[in-house]
Amino acid sequence: MQMSKGRQYWSDHLAAIAAEGIPAKAYARREGLSVSALYYWRKRLKSEASSSAVALPAAPQPSRQFVPVQISDADARVPCSLILAPGVRLELAQLPSAQWLAALGAAVSRQVR
Fold first, then answer.
1. For an engineered disulfide with 21, which of 17, 67, 86, 111 has Cβ 3.0 to 4.6 Å away?
2. pLDDT digit string (tens) for 82-113?
3. At what angle do helices 35-51 and 7-20 cross, to 10 degrees?
4. CA–CA separation, 97 vs 105, rounded Å?
5. HSE-up of 106 (CA within 13 Å, CB side)?
6. pTM to 2 decimals?
7. CA count, 13 A, side-chain hemisphere, 88
């Protein structure tokens, strides 16, 4: 079990679970982590935050920047997943155009404010 890892290590993993909106068991399996360790640290950090006068720093927000993608075969259909918010995932049959992604980003940005 990876209990010897530090508070920040587990806090980062818990933040990733929240950002991706996936079950802890699925995340643990994917990352090769102990699910019991994730649950332990979730409980411990929540308990420390509620009993401490100093709150834990907010989980880092996922970057809202687009990353350039180049596909070698213009006719290739490459499925992709976009995580818009915790628990909100958009599955697409192929990678959309940059213009469509920019419009989606602008629309989501307007909704968040």
1. 86
2. 877 777 788 888 878 878 887 887 777 776 55
3. 100
4. 12
5. 6
6. 0.44
7. 4
Q: Which residues of the chain have pLDDT under 70?
A: 1-4, 52-67, 69-76, 111-113
Residue carrying the six token digits 């699910």: 35
d(CA 113, CA 111): 6
Rounded alpha-carbon distances, angstroms, from residue 65 to 58, 61, 87: 20, 12, 19
Structure tokens, 29:
């399996």
- Map residue 76 onto helix, strand or coil: coil
Tokens of 58: 């907010």
